[in-house]
Amino acid sequence: MSLFKSTVGIAKAAAVATVLSTVAFSANAADITLRGASLFDENHAYTKTLREFERLISEGYEGEVEFEMHLNGELGDESDFVTFLQQGVAIDYAIMAPSNMAVFAPAIPLMDMPFLFRDLDHWNAVLSSDVLAPLEEELYEKADIKVIGYAGGGTRNLASAEPIANMDELGGHKMRVMGAPIQAKIFSAISAAPSAIAYNEVYNAIQTGVIAGFENEAASIQNLKFYEVAPNITLTKHAITVRPLTMSGKTFRKLPEDLQALVLEAGAKAGAFGREIESREDGEKLQAMADAEQIMITEFENRENLLDLVVPVQDEFAADLGATELLESIRSM
């Protein structure tokens, strides 16, 4: 049974309460405990990235650091992670979609904007540079969440209950999008009918007909068995995921200076490690589901039409944020 076939229960609430009561770090303690969280199991690229971050810290730090990982959405979804990180409770580090942090830092979803990257080379060049520094600074200032690296690399496509092959079939398509307004604007511009609903409600919402599909990368579709209700994958290739590896600012500032430096170094290296894993595994996972006859893959006719339709929306969004120069810098790389 899929993880999202049921709502968060009493056991999860009890687990969260227990974790919230735990002290993650004490300035007077000889040992430091850092707590991570992932929506997924050990096999997912995000969890592997977090484990690599832990390994780099453990091997590089002379003092003793212990790690406590909460997997499979034990502490809720990414919107919960954002709140915990911002408040400095329950979670010290996690990987999240930028759009889930928009409530605190309105410009941060620019990282996640559909149709932003031309291809994997463009995406990797941006994430390996400092071009996103203004967004990182805004997130740290407004949300007290520090970006320490960049994971991601999955190519996002449409997943739906019925096939979608062209603009006519896309028109009016009821689909789930992430909560940042730019997501809804982009998909409205290409004639879909987007709505922001909680990620843990997607499976049931498709099953009951509240929505007809959503958009995501192969790893999540496979890991959470979304193919059971949305087996039709349309290759819109509208995004290559940017997934900041983040740490609570409150946690980061409590760490000794030498550990702070190591966190930044390990975060950057772990992010690059995660990008390689996910970008490589993305096509493999998509093909594995197709080979198992769990999904049917459809190319989108005249995909160039989508690219033309979204440019004015992207430009307007960037202008409203005062980020026109940043958008142009990304496009020109």
Description:
The chain contains 13 helices and 9 strands. Mean pLDDT is 90; it is low at 1-23 and 26-30. With 333 residues, the chain is an alpha/beta fold. The chain has one domain: Bacterial extracellular solute-binding protein, family 7 (D-Maltodextrin-Binding Protein, domain 2), CATH 3.40.190.170. Helix 2 (45-60) links the parallel strand 1 (32-37) and strand 2 (65-70).
Secondary structure tally: strands: 9
**How many structural domains does the protein architecture include?**
1
CATH superfamily assignment?
Bacterial extracellular solute-binding protein, family 7
Mean pLDDT score, rounded?
90
Summarize the amount of helix as a percent range: 40-55%
Largest sheet features: 9 strands, mixed
CATH topology call: D-Maltodextrin-Binding Protein, domain 2
CATH class: Alpha Beta
Total helices: the number is 13
Spell the H/E element sequence: HEHEHEHHEHEHEHEHEHHEHH
Gyration radius, rounded: 20 Å
Low-confidence stretches: 1-23, 26-30
Overall morphology: globular
- Percent in strands: 15-25%
N-C termini distance: 44 Å
CATH architecture: 3-Layer(aba) Sandwich
Defining traits:
single chain, nine-stranded mixed beta sheet, 9 strands, D-Maltodextrin-Binding Protein, domain 2, alpha/beta, disordered N terminus, 333 residues
